[in-house]
Amino acid sequence: MTQPLAERYRERLPLTNETPIISLGEGSTPLLPAPRLSEFLGSEVWLKWEGANPTGSFKDRGMTIALSKALEEGVEAVVCASTGNTAASAAAYAARAGLPALILQPAGAVALGKLAQARALGARVLEVRGSFDEAMTAARELAARGTHALVNSLNPYRIEGQKTAAFEIVEELGVPDVLTLPYGGGGNTRAYFKGFDEAGAGLPRLVLGESTSRATTIASAIRIADPVHAQEVEEALERSNGAIVALDDDDIIEAWRLLAHEEGVFCEPASAASVAAAMTLPRESGHRVVCVITGHGLKDPESVTRLTPPSLPVDPDPDAIADAAR
CATH says 5-57+157-306 is which class? Predict the structure, then answer.
């Protein structure tokens, strides 16, 4: 049985003997070789498949620590603003902890799969008439009253949990030459940087895939106009000699299809921003690149409807089926 993330890395996390561990079996996600992408990109490519976490995204790594500490600190409930993945994760771990979860979502900006998770898990979901940034401001103001714990990535315990993905990469592969990530709010970049820094084996070059249309991109998980961790991201890029790659929706969709068709990994479009960023790198034989795939494709089923051909009706006849399959 795989150890809970909090137990596996207890000595590197802000836990005490009194901290109740709230876990759904997060972490220890696959690090997949990507042979076809490697051939296509001219480097050795690996995929850190975070869609294998319990609610289907990397957010679970931080949420286990955030909810464990919230319960230890005796809060009445948790609150977050979310474009989807944080909502689903907060709802699941709050339910596990026996705490109410309040989700503030920007109107019309959340993928159906993520909204369904939060609602099914018993969270109170409120649609804010405004942007993600306005929903975040409201969540922070509510948390400041002391009754609710804010479980967005501004919560330092979230970053502590998420940094463990870097530990896993170092343990399995060593430090890659390049690590690529989607760039939404910047919390995951901050966490990976912290993790590699604490591991003490060196830093990969961080390359971030950012949408050129942050407020309207098809990649809903990174549809964040004002990254709350922008300052920390700048520091991480400076220290790692990293870069931000500007991507339009066509770039992200191309990478999404390539990842699915060539490697069999079905992710939500935002996750493919890491692969799209890797596709801009110079071909360097022998370089090791890890692309972080942040969320499962079932998070955003509407994108599949928009981006793939529909099913074809066919008679139950072998000749008709063979003709239709051509």
Answer: alpha beta
Asked if the 59-155 domain carries CATH number 3.40.50.1100, the reply is yes
Per residue in 67-103, pLDDT (tens digit) is: 999 999 999 999 999 878 999 999 999 999 999 999 9
pTM: 0.93
Place of tokens 């795939």: 293
Question: Per residue in 305-321, pLDDT tens?
Answer: 888 888 888 989 898 88
Which are the contacts of 198, defined by CB distance < 8 A and separation ≥ 6?
A: 12, 163, 166, 167
Query: Which residue do the tokens 């098809």 mark?
Result: 218
The alpha helices in the chain, defined as continuous H runs, are 5-8, 35-41, 59-73, 85-97, 112-120, 132-143, 156-162, 164-173, 187-199, 230-240, 249-263, 273-278, 301-307, 318-324
Q: How far is CA 87 from the centre of its chain?
A: 12
Here the tokens at position 308 are: 């793939």
Number of helices (H) and strands (E), helices first, in the chain? 14, 10
Residues of the chain with CATH 3.40.50.1100: 5-57+157-306, 59-155
